[in-house]
Amino acid sequence: MTRRVLKDKYNINNKVIDLYERTLNDVKDQFQYYDEIREFNQLKVLNALQEEGISESHFTNSSGYGYGDIGRDSLDKVYARIFNSESALVRPHFVNGTHALGCALFGNLRPGDTMLSVCGDPYDTLHEVIGIENKGSGSLKEYGVNYEQVNLTDDNKINFEDIKKHLESNNTIKLVHIQRSTGYGWRKSLLISEIKEIIDFVKGINPNVICFVDNCYGEFIDTIEPTDVGADLVAGSLIKNIGGGIAPTGGYIAGTKDCVTKASYRLTVPGIGGECGSTFGVMRLLYEGLFFAPHVSIEALKGAIFCSRIMELAGFEVLPKYTDKRSDIIQAIKFNDKEKLINFCRGIQKGSPVDSFAQCEPWDMPGYSDQVIMAAGAFVQGASIELSADAPIREPYIGYLQGGLTFDHAKIGILIALSNIL
Q1: Domain ends where: 225, 252, 283?
Q2: When you count CB atoms within 10 A of the terminal residue's CB, does the N or C end of the chain come out lower?
Q3: C-alpha separations of 84 from 185, 211, 226, 293, 400 in Å
């Protein structure tokens, strides 16, 4: 029945359907492995909600200053439990993940300090925050914060030798930035075990350095988070994994009490921090999204694994491979062809439940140095936990697919996208 609908309604040809059926058979073992992780994380979230005694009274609708918003304050405690951290700051006032990351950086760095990125280039939208591309005003660089970078080795591994050189030669390094996901790069996401190795190495040289992990796209893909292995600070977006496809906006920061408090002073102002901020009636959505997040994150991950295998069978280079252990929900496909990249993204848009009739085009997107194409027919604008694909328009024309609230939808969207380029 499914095969007939795919052919009749979406013009999926027999070749693609044959690849689809072979792929489903190939990925069974991988799916079973991640289903066990999903069950563990569902228990972890359930227990955190129960331990904090969450009730309907926490689904508040505060206004004005938002003093005493028990829903807001209790959600912070729930997140702190999930991340096994001293403190957390979860707010709808973060406009995106970059905003949460920026608050964490500005809150914990001072003039004369140095930030060291150990995974090469940070994600594109952080470049102006840091001052790597100083197009606007108010970057860390303009406030006197220095920046150094350790590039990956030729085989895309962490360069521990260079990290040691930087830490031993510069006593102003205050914060080490670790990017868990790939961003717009061609490398695997960092496994928690690899993040632990970096943190242990850095702390062994200077235990006072803040280890900060950009955790976007990585939540609930493993049974533990970076804070379980020594990260002082993590941050991410609620319209990615941890919002479960239900949170309408927002971001989070978790870690040591000192680091989170300093970050909160940049979200609001010193002396107020997280004590204020009305929540506009969104608290139920943030709680419910968190509850669904372990399930939805693995549904999205299954879509990525499926995409990896079927695109590989179709002749494209992919990273990671479908059998590789994963630490985020992103799947990279190297097209080596501008038009194939664009048509793949357009195919994902065609397979969307919202705005499927729209044709996405490359455009000059704020925060990016290259034109970017984004396919995102989502219920929440820009929510990359929903099926989406995006790419900077630059050689070798790599597309990045992520999301899918259900695996059933993700695989249909991928089949339409593959048919769009074959």
Answers
A1: 283
A2: N
A3: 30, 16, 10, 17, 31
